[in-house]
Description:
- By secondary structure, the chain is α+β, with helices and mostly antiparallel strands.
- Among the domains are: 42-67 and 425-573 and 621-686, Alpha/Beta hydrolase fold, catalytic domain (Rossmann fold), CATH 3.40.50.1820; 274-420, Prolyl oligopeptidase, N-terminal domain (Methylamine Dehydrogenase, Chain H, 7 Propeller).
- A hairpin with a 6-residue loop joins β27 (389-395) and β28.
Amino acid sequence: xxxxxxxxxxxxxxxxxxxxxxxxxxxxxxxxxxxxxxxxxxxxxxxxxxxxxxxxxxxxxxxxxxxxxxxxxxxxxxxxxxxxxxxxxxxxxxxxxxxxxxxxxxxxxxxxxxxxxxxxxxxxxxxxxxxxxxxxxxxxxxxxxxxxxxxxxxxxxxxxxxxxxxxxxxxxxxxxxxxxxxxxxxxxxxxxxxxxxxxxxxxxxxxxxxxxxxxxxxxxxxxxxxxxxxxxxxxxxxxxxxxxxxxxxxxxxxxxxxxxxxxxxxxxxxxxxxxxxxxxxxxxxxxxxxxxxxxxxxxxxxxxxxxxxxxxxxxxxxxxxxxxxxxxxxxxxxxxxxxxxxxxxxxxxxxxxxxxxxxxxxxxxxxxxxxxxxxxxxxxxxxxxxxxxxxxxxxxxxxxxxxxxxxxxxxxxxxxxxxxxxxxxxxxxxxxxxxxxxxxxxxxxxxxxxxxxxxxxxxxxxxxxxxxxxxxxxxxxxxxxxxxxxxxxxxxxxxxxxxxxxxxxxxxxxxxxxxxxxxxxxxxxxxxxxxxxxxxxxxxxxxxxxxxxxxxxxxxxxxxxxxxxxxxxxxxxxxxxxxxxxxxxxxxxxxxxxxxxxxxxxxxxxxxxxxxxxxxxxxxxxxxxxxxxxxxxxxxxxxxxxxxxxxxxxxxxxxxxxxxxxxxxxxxxxxxxxxxxxxxxxxxxxxx
Length: 688
């Protein structure tokens, strides 16, 4: 009854509204995440969505296929170098939470590795009555047997941290331990840590992160090392670790905004600010060189440049930056890593991958390109600090992921693992096209379609986009998409719209804040290009986006309802006039603008999906989904959008998983159900 009354009140308030938000948000109560009223609403919505999606005859088949993929025993066990061997976190149908385990490198390279269990998270969860989700471990060099293990109860970003002894396979009695929170820490030495966390209530920024860094010793003493400002996004500690694992220096990254930083070296208790532009990022530390990437032109370097500072020169105040690599206009640095003696750069060139290893001699950096498969997307999975080895994953839309062990010194590599084909890729091919956006910019997109497809606009097509935070979206192998969608004759598109990192900082910065509309225009331009080429049509085109992609999909739905027939909105940002007041939202003001500033609010409210729903407009029926335990993007965004649609009498589907966090994939069984629901909805809208 209460839900009905709330919906009726919302409908009355919304009647006749076009763009403006109601003076009082009638659905703000849904922002109270765990309130009984909110959870009753969620349960009701889940029941409705499950009735529609899980009773579809296709659901059982899709679920079985997804489950087989996510729990397969022949998946690649992703390795992390540690203690002369490799670690892995393994999940399957018998180990839902996962097993942290270790193998020698030689054993790992064999067909049947012999694993030693370090920690069983399912057993730990059962014993402690928690829903522990693995978030990683930081191990003290050089032995790497003492580790700071991060555990999340439910999968959110907040973690509990405990010291674990891998030799004894047990948590250290009276060892380092920190209660759950959003925190960052690293070893200084065996008896001390550099820690950034919310020490007492109120010691947090508007984004919900810490701004006070302390040195914590084994005797429990916590001495302040650095204090940022409460208005910062947050402060992150960085230990510059040299030969033998020794801490050569302590660095802090003071986040002024999400994209602007100040880097401060803590030398003998005196903070030394490093000469850098605000838009710069720390990347690595190797051979006494601190590596940064510039996100804007500065000091004679162009935006995107990778530079090095000598640490001893920084300490003495005589440092001069050296250029390592300057990306070209169609290149972008994806990631930077270090081995014992080499700097590794993961590169995109025309949205295609390459990995280079850099060596420094006589003040000059020279590159060696690693011998890896051509026309692939690469992910550096782990690098060794004991030598120059690294693991690199290679993949493509139709090429199953393979794992390569490379040597950064020689450039040589060898395949050590390969994922078996999860779907028949022989029926499809990959093309790259370019669409023209509203301002004339050329926007690339990848298309995976059946060979010899009849181009009459009838091809069921899913179009994915993100377009934010300088995150690139190159081709990747998606087994569940291939098995459930491509094998049934569908097509798949990744639109490399502006806002991403496909072509470096400029591609991202060209659509920040008041220019955001251009990113949405890019996405619409790709849809129109697909239609113009008669690959698909509005009737057969669906879009999918998550997180920042939720802004994209809800704006696309409200601005261009005529372009698509299906809209999947997952873990989304939607209410852009309140995003900065929810969870970590305040940290993203640099991306979107500040709704509390009238000039910013003016351009944000022109596109915000929550405020721009119009009564009487025919929209494609969206499928909206999120996670209760998402403490990064607040579930209130998705909830309120669904409630507003309901109040306006606009058809929609809503489903909220109750744990898993922002990634929404912590549990392989629930992940299988998640994707089965997604594809049932898409099949209903695009294939029926």
